[in-house]
Amino acid sequence: MGILTFNLSCPHCLRENAVLEAFAELQVNNSNKSNIAYSCRSCGGAGIAVVEKYSSGAVSALALAKQNGHVNVMIPGQSGYTLHEVFPKPSIITAPECTPSRAAQAYVEAKENIQRKRFDTAVMLCRKVLDIVTRNLLGDESNDEKLVKRISMLHSKGIITAQMKDWAHIVRIDSNGAVHSDEEFTKDDAEEMLGFTEVFLIYSFTLPAMVEAKKQSKEPQ
Q1: What ranges do the domains of the chain cover?
Q2: Residue among 210, 133, 137, 123 at smallest CA distance from 174
Q3: CATH: 3.40.50.720, 3.40.50.740, 1.20.120.330, 3.30.565.10. Which one for 101-208?
Q4: Are strands 73-75 and 4-6 parallel, antiparallel or unpaired?
Q5: CA dihedral 153, 157, 162, 167 (to 10 degrees)
Q6: How far apart are the C-alpha atoms of 106 and 127, rounded to whole Å?
Q7: How many whole angstroms separate alpha carbon 138 and alpha carbon 164?
Q8: What are the pLDDT digits (tens) for 136-173?
Q9: Residue 45, CA distances (Å) to 14, 15, 48, 51 in order
Q10: CA 214 to centroid of chain Cα atoms
Q11: For residue 68, which of 18, 123, 126, 218 sits 20 to 30 Å off, Cα-Cα?
Q12: Element (H, E) at 83
C-alpha cells in the first residue's frame, strides 16, 4: 500500500523535507475539497491539509495512494490535485524592528535552529548577531576587541545598561564560538542566549527608532 505525503516543512518542528504522512480524510460538503489529517514522522506533530481534486470523478488523494500499491503520492506534485491550505500555519519569525539586515537574518536563523533543536548552532548564530551589532554600534572603536570587551565599551558609553552588561557574562557570550570549541549547549542555554540577544536588539535599535519617530511626530510642521 502506498502512502500520501505532503512536500512541506513541518509547521511544528520546522524540519525541511519532513515526512508529513496522511492518515485520514474527510470530504468538505460534497465538494471536490477534502480535509486530510497528517502527522510528522520526525516530531509527531499533527495538522490538516485542504486538498482539492480537479475532477469530481477522480478518487480522493488518500484513496489514490492506497489503491496504487507501493506507489507513493506526494502533494504538491501529484497531478490532478491542488493544495489550498495547511493548518497549523508555520509561524513567521522576524527580528526586532530596525535591526540591521545581516544581524536580522542571523537572528531569524538562530530562532529557527532552536525550534529544530539545533542548540549549538543557535548559540553560534546569536553570537554572530551580537558580533555584527556591537561592531555596528561602536564603528571604528571596535577594532579587534573581543565581544565581551565590546559589551563593556557599550556600557561605558551609556548605550546599554549595567544589567545588560552583567547578563551578557551570565549567558557566556565571551567564548570564541561553539563551532570552534567543544562547548555543548542545552535548550535552556540556547533560549537564554536568544532572550538576551532579542532584548539587546530591542534596546539598541528598536527603542531608539521609536523614540526618534515620536520626536519627529511632535516637531512643528
Answers
A1: 4-87, 101-208
A2: 123
A3: 1.20.120.330
A4: parallel
A5: -40
A6: 9
A7: 16
A8: 999 988 877 888 889 999 999 988 999 999 998 888 77
A9: 11, 11, 11, 19
A10: 31
A11: 18
A12: strand 81-87
